[in-house]
Design brief:
Blueprint: H1 30-44, H2 47-58, H3 65-81, H4 85-98, H5 103-112, H6 141-145, E1 149-153, E2 162-168, E3 174-181, E4 185-193, E5 200-206, E6 209-217, E7 221-228, E8 231-239, E9 245-253, E10 256-268, H7 270-275
Antiparallel strand pairs: 1-2, 1-10, 2-3, 3-4, 4-5, 5-6, 6-7, 7-8, 8-9, 9-10
Helix pairs in contact: 1-2, 1-3, 2-3, 3-4, 3-5, 4-5
Length: about 280
Amino acid sequence: MASVRPRCPRLVLTGLAAVAMAFAASARAGGPEDGERGLTALQSGDYEMAVKLFTRALEDRRMIRVDRALAHLSRGKALLALHETARAEADFREAIALKPNDADAIAALADAQKPAASVSTAVAPPDASEQHGPAGDPWGLLASMAGRYYWYEAPGDDPNAAWLHLEWTPDGQAMTESLQSRKNRLLVGRFQIEPRSRKIIGAVVVKRQALYQTLDVGESAMTQYGFEQAAPVKSVSRLQADGSIDVNDAVYRAGAWQAYRHFRLVEVSRDDLVARGLLSAK
């Protein structure tokens, strides 16, 4: 979960651990466009297409160093999902060479080097216990938050300036979220299960920019991973005894995770929001 100040939002609950391919505007159109399309294919589970698109993006020699690192990392993830471990490792190593101390690339390389029996859920078949929906894994804490409203309380801000709402889509196969202030909607997002890995992935739109993430979700806590302004970030959310959710954000710099934001989500009833004139009674 990322911190968003209602007056000048950046990322929130689903958005802090944002992973986005922010290809530089200075690069030729083919590189950025293929990279963005590759990321879309990766997120949707079309790994073969993702490999093709990232390969084509990398052929654009005008792409800057950080963008090339992101393209290698993302292609490596697609290759790993296709069981092409050696090629995936080569991409992860190239990403690290281009961007040393990249926590995501280092973790991906370590995952690729695990024995086949323990390589993660990226290639694990679906299990009956993981069937998604309001009562099952791997939704965990997110499932308990669905249908609820929360005040977004950041230190130094009006605790009733913005509220967060999550709900299941009509078919029960995904979850949407929105962060709303008194004046306008600050963020919209969506969670769903990536079909091959059975992991939860998310996408949010903030200020017309799409941000992507991966999530590890438990019953009372979850961690979101991604990139914010080309730096690895994570957000750890924990359910408290009073029902609130405590969120701590960190960025990976100089070889270590450094805390930099904290906020709380405090449940509020829909009736209370209606009574304050913040929601329609319908």
